[in-house]
Amino acid sequence: MSVLTVIPVLIPLCCAVASLLARRSIRLQRKLAVAGTAALLFAAIGLMTAVLHHGVLCTQSGSWPAPFGITLVADILSSVMVMLTGLMGLAVAIYSLASMDEARERSGYYPLLHMLLAGVNGAFLTGDLFNLYVWFEVMLIASFVLLALGGERAQMEGAIKYVTLNLMASALFLAGVGILYGMAGTLNMADLSLKLRDTGHHGLITCVAMLFLTAFGVKAALFPVFCWLPASYHTPPVAVSAIFAGLLTKVGVYSLLRVFTLIFTQDIPYTHTIILWAAGLTMVTGVLGAFAQNEFRRILSFHSISQIGYMVMGLGLFSPMALAGSVYFLVHHSVVKTNLFLISGVAEKLGGSFELKKLGGLYSSSPVVAGLFFVVAMSLAGMPPLAGFVGKFILARAGLEAGQWVIVGVALAVGMVTLMSMTKIWGEAFWKGSPGTALPQPPSRKVLVTLLVPVAFLAALTVLTGIGAAPLIHVALRAAEQMLDNSQYIAAVLGEGMR
Amino acid sequence: MENLLALVIGVLYAAGIYMMLRRSLVKLIIGLALLSNAANLLIFTSGGLVPARPPLIARGESALAAPFADPLPQALILTAIVISFGVMAFALVLFYRAAEEAGADDLDRLTSTDT
Q1: How far apart are CA A413 and CA A422, in angstroms?
Q2: Is A137 in Cβ contact with B113 (below 8 Å)?
Q3: pLDDT tens for residues A373-429?
Q4: What is the rounded distance in angstroms from the CA atom of residue B68 to the CA atom of residue A300?
Q5: What is the DSSP letter of B114?
Q6: Which of residues 259 through 318 in chain A touch B, CB cutoff 8 A?
Q7: Which residue, among A310, A275, A259, has the nearest Cα to A413 in the 3D structure?
Q8: Helix, strand, or coil here: A295?
């Protein structure tokens, strides 16, 4: 029994309720948003240190013993993801203070943000497949409303596609859960791992594995089921896009990492080759889609897809180094992509548009913003010594060690096109002269500082995790070890002697 | 019984997908509802059907007698029904608003955010 595994879910839940009670006072809700997400970050750091020192932590809710009750489990992968949630939550909460319009704040933006974080953390911490489905739905409902909040026509259209495809994915996930329960009679992930290890019917298990791959693939925006992402991510306010880009697709990737290392490891040459192909095609289609776009946020949305390919590539290669690369890349990409969306919002506030054609001259008018964008964009493209380079380096090395030349070639080529795409934004929005259209009223100094604090913080983080990559790589390697040798996880959930 | 239910599930999935492929927003949401019901029925069937054997320990016994119905799938389905009810309610309002904004319930005219 460990309270630490429950707190990261409880904090945002309580904050959501408190924000709802403080419905009339926006000021109180704003303070609660920052305080709640900061508390979440501290709780996540506490969980992380505990997991690193004491191994896998586990809580049986209601004290029901493991395969019967709902288990909350925190291994290193989970705690890294919870930490990311805290970081992104805090950054976006601070950014929202200066960027969210009052109408949206009045109609419940902050409670929804807390609910979203609660759902995301629940999904990261649960050890039960059906419970994972429930947390997915908590997260999805909050994200549906966040996406549609404000009711602009573009938002409505984006939300239709997002809602439809995500509900389809949920139905597939639920069907997979049902069949799995029929086969094994349990939905506890650790128990499933044991029960499915030596059953006879591989064919049916592989079939269910593909159902799960499709369902989580939709959530993670894998090829060929990513169409909802570029149709919806550029429609809501920037703070919402940023938290979506930083966390939602990562939940899909996390679920893939979890089930394809813990449960579906019966036929690795078959299933993980399919995953590897999907990863390669995701990278290529995403980056080509981005190259064809001329709107700041649409470019970023397509890059989100292509970068998902890298994370899933590590899962497809299925070696300790490759999985560590996936974990490292998850952290790197969350930090960088959230930040790029936040910067796109700053650019819009300064230049009056998201269209690259209408932007320009930002380098001369606000060199600080330009400098921050440059650092973060280069990290996304994978320039040394930033975090993106380290992530791609680990994955490429793991690919070469596994003899998968094609996927390594694809990954490096996609990195090149990413760089071209980032230089396009740089050239058009920052370096090019001002297009001469009327600029909006520049934001006050106080607003600008509030917007730039989280941006600068996340930018510093990507530089730090790039230059001083060793501690994070070490944690990622340990997470990968735990994923590949899941006896620790199973022992923590079901008790010793059940390995 | 299993065969009949399997057939029903298959028909529900097929009808759901067919509805979702139409251009009308109303049919899209009917399709979604059919799909989630098909999934619920799938859980119900794959959980194993044992008629007239409630999972209750008989008076004087200390354990369940062998063929008994598993209550867990029903608990799962109940949860899933409640969730899909909430989601459907939201989706209905969203689609209604979208149709109002766009002035049509034709999906082919809601393409301005696509690329």
Answers
A1: 14
A2: no
A3: 999 999 999 888 899 999 999 999 999 999 999 999 999 999 999 999 999 999 988
A4: 54
A5: -
A6: 289, 292-293, 298
A7: A310
A8: strand
Q: Where are the beta strands (DSSP E) in A63-142?
A: 71-74
* pLDDT tens, position by position, B69-93: 888 888 999 999 999 999 999 999 9
Residues 6+ apart with CB under 8 A from A403: none
The whole-number pLDDT of residue A499 equals 45
ipTM: 0.93
Alpha carbon distance A492, A495 (integer Å): 6
pLDDT over 70, % of chain B: 99
Query: Is the peptide bond prior to A440 cis by the omega test (within 30 degrees of 0)?
Result: no
Query: What ranges do the domains of chain A cover?
Result: 267-467
Arithmetic mean of pLDDT, A466-482: 92
Can you list the domains of chain B with their CATH numbers? 2-50+71-106 (1.10.287.3510)
Nearest CA in chain B to A186: B72
State the best of A133, A161, A164 to mutate against chain B, taking most chain B CBs within 10 Å: A164
Q: How far is CA A313 from CA A113, A176, A299, A308, A410, in A?
A: 30, 23, 22, 8, 11
Residues of chain A positioned with their CB less than 8 A from the CB of B32: 164, 167-168, 171
Question: What DSSP state is assigned to residue A355?
Answer: B
Q: Chain B interface, mutation test: which of A129, A133, A153, A212, most B Cβ atoms within 10 Å?
A: A153
How many other β-carbons are positioned within 10 Å of the β-carbon of residue B74? 13
Interface contact flag, A298 B95, Cβ < 8 Å:
no
SS (H, E, C) B25-93: HHHHHHHHHHHHHHHHHHHHHHCCCCCCCCCCCCCCCCCCCCCCCCCHHHHHHHHHHHHHHHHHHHHHH
The whole-angstrom distance between B73's CA and the closest CA on chain A is 8
A235 chain-B contacts, CB cut-off 8 A: 113
Cross-chain CB nearest to B94 (options A148, A232, A292): A148
Which among A259, A261, A251, A260 is positioned nearest to A128, based on CA atoms? A259
Touching check for A158 and chain B: CB below 8 Å?
yes
Would the CB atoms of A289 and B115 count as touching at under 8 Å?
A: yes
Query: What pLDDT is attached to residue A119?
Result: 96
Q: How far is A167 from chain B (nearest CA, A)?
A: 7
- Whether pTM > 0.80 for this model: the answer is yes
Q: How far is CA A344 from CA A104, A151, A340, A347, in A?
A: 20, 21, 6, 5
DSSP for A34-84, please give it: HHHHHHHHHHHHHHHHHHHHH--EEEEGGG--TTTS-EEEE-HHHHHHHHH
Residue numbers in A near B114 (CB within 8 A): 230-231
Q: Are A227 and A220 spatial neighbours (Cβ–Cβ below 8 Å)?
A: no
